[in-house]
Amino acid sequence: MEIRFHGHSCIQLTGGGHSVIIDPFLTGNSLATVQAQDIEVDCVLLTHGHGDHIGDAEEIALRCGAQVIAIAELAGYIGKSGAKAVGMNLGGTYRTEFARFKMVQAFHSSSVEGPDGQPIYMGMPAGFLIEMEDRTILHCGDTALFGDMKLIGERHNIDVAFIPIGDHYTMGPEDAALAAEWLKAKVVVPIHYNTFPPIRQNPLDYLALLEERDIHGRILEPGEVLVL
């Protein structure tokens, strides 16, 4: 399996002739090294409704004929564009011929801006546990630290965990280091940092916190690939 980081929280998994992208925020993302029209995938996974996570979802889904998998309210919203949307909910698992997508909890908010400038509720935020090519990948989504991360780590043999470290809108490095300890992933990759001024972080500082806990951390630059 190849895991490509596209900057911010956007991850693409490719293997066995199939590809999945999570939170495709490329247009307007100064860190991204590809454009939305360069992406070819079978599925688009969305953790929540904020613009820096759903940004290019409709364009990619409509052009590729890809399924959009998201919490029910957000899937309903995306589906109005004509995209093939699959709504699910926390704790559920959606299965395809090549992967299993289990929706786990996250603690955050989720909305899109309505035509009058007021937020429209888009359901609960989430993370995804993805089983694909005999690997288990966790994308935590945007979240605070919460105790049930211990349970997620105890119940699943996680190969790679993508954990937000930006602070301000999500947990910061110290809480994210504890999250990594609880999740017990073989490799931990920080996400959701340095895209905007409020979430500026030095990822090397985070890796140092992981090293203190004997956790293998890995920084991925936008466009870089991790091969499992």
Radius of gyration: 16 Å
Widest sheet: strand ordering: 6-5-4-3-2-1-15
Alpha carbon gap, first and last residue: 5 Å
Structural class: alpha/beta
Report the order of strands and helices: EEEEHHEHEEEEEEEHEHEHE
Could you say what the CATH architecture is?
4-Layer Sandwich
The amount of beta strand, in percent, is 25-35%
Mean pLDDT: 97
Instruction: Indicate the low-confidence ranges by residue numbers.
Output: none
What characteristics describe this protein?
seven-stranded mixed β-sheet, 21% helix, 228 residues, alpha/beta, six-stranded mixed β-sheet, Metallo-beta-lactamase, Chain A, 15 strands
What do you see in this structure?
The chain is an alpha/beta fold. Strand 7 and strand 8 form a beta hairpin. The N and C termini lie close together (5 Å). The mean pLDDT is 97. It has 6 helices and 15 strands. Helices cover 21% and strands 30% of the residues. The chain has a single domain (2-220), classed as 4-Layer Sandwich (Metallo-beta-lactamase, Chain A). It has a 7-stranded mixed beta sheet with strand order 6-5-4-3-2-1-15, covered by helices on one side. It is globular and about 50 Å long. Helix 4 packs parallel to helix 5 (173-183) and helix 5 (173-183) crosses helix 6. The protein has helices at residues 51-54, 57-64, 72-79, 149-155, 173-183, 203-212, and strands at residues 2-5, 11-15, 18-22, 43-45, 67-71, 84-88, 93-95, 99-105, 111-113, 119-121, 126-132, 135-139, 160-164, 187-191, 225-227.
